[in-house]
Amino acid sequence: MRADQNHVCMIRSMTGFGSAETLTPSGRFTVEIRSVNHRFTEIVVRLPRDLSALEDRVRALVQSRVLRGRIEVTIMREERGMRSRTVRSDADLARAYAQALRELADVLGVVGEVSLSQLIAFPDVVKVEETREDVEGLWPALSRAVEDALTALVALREAEGRRLAADMLARVDRIDDLTRLVDTRTHIAVAEYVQRLRQRIAELLGTVPLDENRLATEIAIFAERVDVSEEVTRLRSHLVQVRHDVEDSAGAIGRRLEFVLQEMGREANTVGSKASDLEMTKAVIAIKGELESLREQVQNVE
């Protein structure tokens, strides 16, 4: 069964990018999400320090949409909104500074009173504090921006997934053709071997009668040695599985495809060890080349 070029593919690439913006009373926020290949799921969230309480929520949103890969989420405040400020004084700290200054003046014999201007010059006596960020009030708008960026990211991953699927299915079709060639050549190789063996024996024996039983035994031994029917059957079964995963499966299928391709590589090696002529050897080499290309492509499948 060949790939349907109009089939809607479900696989996704692990590479993508998405961004979105939102304007809030706290300022303009930009959300950027990048994803690259990774064997498992790794989510890194970077956001303004005063919004650190939202990190777990952002991570949960990403996990709900992305199943595999290294995902970096960066949330930047581009324009700071107008936030109320409060001036606070620490009277206790000011008294402590004043007492320390008087004691120092007594020790040094310095005359004079401690002034207010001297006290407010010390750290933390007078502080200007911004009102703490209302993360709960900010979250609805920020979460929508994260969702929009995720939607853009997933769209890119799906588009790249469609390109990957088209390439992978074309390679699967080539492996299928090569596998059929190997199967056909095996039967031809046995027939050619029988012909060569009869010709060689006739040259050696001349007019001496041919022992058909011994010849049949030799042919059976050769046929068993080059028989690849089991390996071909398993290869075809694996090809069906790969097609199904690429065309119809949803979710994180990359690691399953990696395993299937590993099994196909083992079968190809076994077929190669049984190859009895040049055509079979060339076909097996071509199969291994396509499998290697498939393995490289699967490294980027979610």
In quaternary terms, these chains amount to: single chain
Annotation field: number of helices: 8
Kindly state the percentage of residues in helix: 55-70%
Shape: rod-shaped
Give the helices and strands as they follow along the chain.
EEEHEEHHEHHHHH
Number of strands: 6
Strand order of the largest sheet: 1-2-4-3
Strand content: 15-25%
Question: Termini distance?
Answer: 25 Å
Low-confidence stretches: 1-9
The tally of domains stands at 3
Which structural class do the helices and strands define? Answer: alpha+beta
- Biggest sheet character: 4 strands, mixed
Q: Look at the structure and give the mean pLDDT.
A: 85
Report Rg: 37 Å
Descriptors:
Ribosomal Protein S5, domain 2; 4-stranded mixed sheet; 8 helices; disordered N terminus; alpha+beta; 302 residues
Q: Could you characterize what this model shows?
A:
The chain has 302 residues and is an alpha+beta fold. Helices cover 60% and strands 16% of the residues. The protein has 3 domains: 16-82 and 134-158, Ribosomal Protein S5, domain 2; 85-130, no CATH class; 161-298, no CATH class. The chain is built from 8 helices and 6 strands. Helix 1 (55-65) packs parallel to helix 4, helix 4 packs antiparallel against helix 8 (278-298) and helix 7 (254-274) packs antiparallel against helix 8. It starts with 15 loop residues before the first strand and ends with a helix. 22% of the residues are buried.
